[in-house]
Structures are given as structure tokens and as C-alpha cells.
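Practice problem 4.
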């Protein structure tokens, strides 16, 4: 089952999968699409409440392009929350499989 998240709100951090919920940490791919006409700096990471563990940090995603993460992504969703940091005015689409 896939989870699809569209980010257009003026925030700088978005929770993709919340620790301690019914979400699953068994994921194989994260597809991130920058649908905006300008580049976007993004970071994707796990957070345990006090520390962050990055899959990618400060990646500049050019306008109208996408990025695929597909290696070593599974994690314990009871302990970690999956988050993405981005600019305050993004237009991102994220598909988690």
C-alpha cells in the first residue's frame, strides 16, 4: 500500500510517518517530486524525539524534477518518525511505498 503526501502549506517540516501509529516502517521507496518552478532544498530523516538520522540532508532538488530513494529505508515505526524538511513555500508530491 502506498502513502501519498502533497505539501503546499507554508511549513518547514512535514511528518510523513508518525511513530507509534498504524503507519508501517516497512517501506521500499520514497519518490519526491518538486512541482515548483524553482529549486527546493530538502532533507529526509528519522527522528526519535531527541536525535535526527538523515537519509538525505540539504539536497537541492531542481525545479520540475524528482528524486527516488530506494535503499535501506525500513525502520521501527514504534521508535522513529519519518520527516521531511523543506522551504516555507513548497510544491512537493511524495509517494511512499
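Answer key:
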Amino acid at each position: 500500500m502506498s502513502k501519498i503526501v502533497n505539501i503546499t502549506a507554508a511549513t518547514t517540516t512535514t511528518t510523513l510517518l508518525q511513530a507509534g501509529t498504524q503507519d508501517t516502517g516497512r517501506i521500499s521507496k520514497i519518490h519526491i517530486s518538486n512541482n515548483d518552478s524553482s529549486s527546493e532544498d530538502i532533507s529526509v530523516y528519522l527522528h526519535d524525539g531527541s536525535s535526527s538520522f538523515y537519509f538525505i540532508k540539504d539536497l537541492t532538488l531542481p525545479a520540475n524534477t524528482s528524486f527516488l530513494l530506494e535503499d535501506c529505508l525500513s525502520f521501527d515505526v514504534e521508535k522513529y518518525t519519518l520527516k521531511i524538511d523543506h522551504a516555507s513555500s513548497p510544491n512537493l508530491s511524495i509517494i511512499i511505498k
